Amino acid sequence: MAVEVRVLKETASGERRVAATPETVRKLLAAGAQVTVERGAGIGAGFVDQAYADAGARLDDGDARDAADLVLCVQPPPPADIARLKPGATLVGMLQPQADVARAEALQARSIQSFPLEKLPRTTRAQAMDVLSSQAGMAGYKAVLIAAQLAPRFFPMLTTAAGTIRPSKVLIVGAGVAGLQAIATARRLGAQVEGFDVRPETREQIESLGGKFLDLGVSAAGEGGYARQLTDEERAVQQQRLADHLKGIDVIVCTAAVPGRPAPKIISTAMAEGMKPGSVIVDLAAETGGNCELTRPGDTFDHGGVTIAGPLNLASLGAVHASEMYARNVLNFVSLFVRDGALQFDWDDELLAKTVWPERPSEAAPVTESPAAGAA
Description:
The protein has helices at about 20-30, 50-55, 80, 100-110, 130-150, 175-190, 205-210, 230-245, 270-275, 320-335, 350-355, and strands spanning about 5, 35-40, 60, 70, 90-95, 115, 160, 165, 170-175, 190-195, 210-215, 250-255, 280-285, 300-305, 305-310, 340, 340-345, 365-370. The chain is α/β, with parallel strands linked by helices and about 375 residues long. It catalyses: NAD(+) + NADPH + H(+)(in) = NADH + NADP(+) + H(+)(out).
């Protein structure tokens, strides 16, 4: 019989995204799969149950999860829900199995073959499957809107009968996908924008979006497009030059992150306290500890006249487009192994071999077929 695909209803607090849309459901059906969507799974993202039914999916209340061969989610299900999955099933989502012992144990107890999409190699071929990039774009956009709302000033320059209003000076820390989207958004709002990143190769990207590259004279170019750790001497120079510069900045949006590690501390307490009253810091890196030493994840507060915000799960605030992008990423990934109504894994494919958890032994056979494989 055809592979059974289930789209979970997210249970994490505040999570509005969904792992499949009516559009991607149709494409899964065209690949020979049978798709079940849990009722209400797409409501938070604007996709009603009837839209999934019209696309050809079955709807249920989540009572038959143990029948699914392939399970799609955004955030990891809690251990109790993992315990209800079919033994040996395949789970795809942003799972972070090693971040929670109970979650990892639950996955292993059910012999769940997991594909944590945050582990996906960031290669040219994988771009259409890169959930970190697609969701970071939405997060960067929303972070600037939050900053504009918190700031007690206009972003654009205005000429009024009461005089000229100077544009806000906005600094975006980090020029990854989220940072570049933040730069573009702040520019659209009319701010005077600078971008700061320790990787010198980001200068061209920042300037292409209309921002000014903040050069502090310290380079941390590393491998794979990520930054390396700075030496103590380099960090001291960077910190002093940055502290001096921040005294004239109105808004900082922090986006710097290192995959799999705590966010680097870039804005010290002294730097924040040196900013002028009415300044705003929005720390997009709050979920992994924050780029600012004062950040409190999930909280917005005043510190000596400076407003500091540490919003969580910003991509969920743009649930419609974030879900559309995420669902397409997921579809492109599962298309690597959903073929002719069956699950067929080619372990010579580095995108599968380097994403799967637990990691497979190197002597594993190149191609395996799931128990669900067979005629549709």
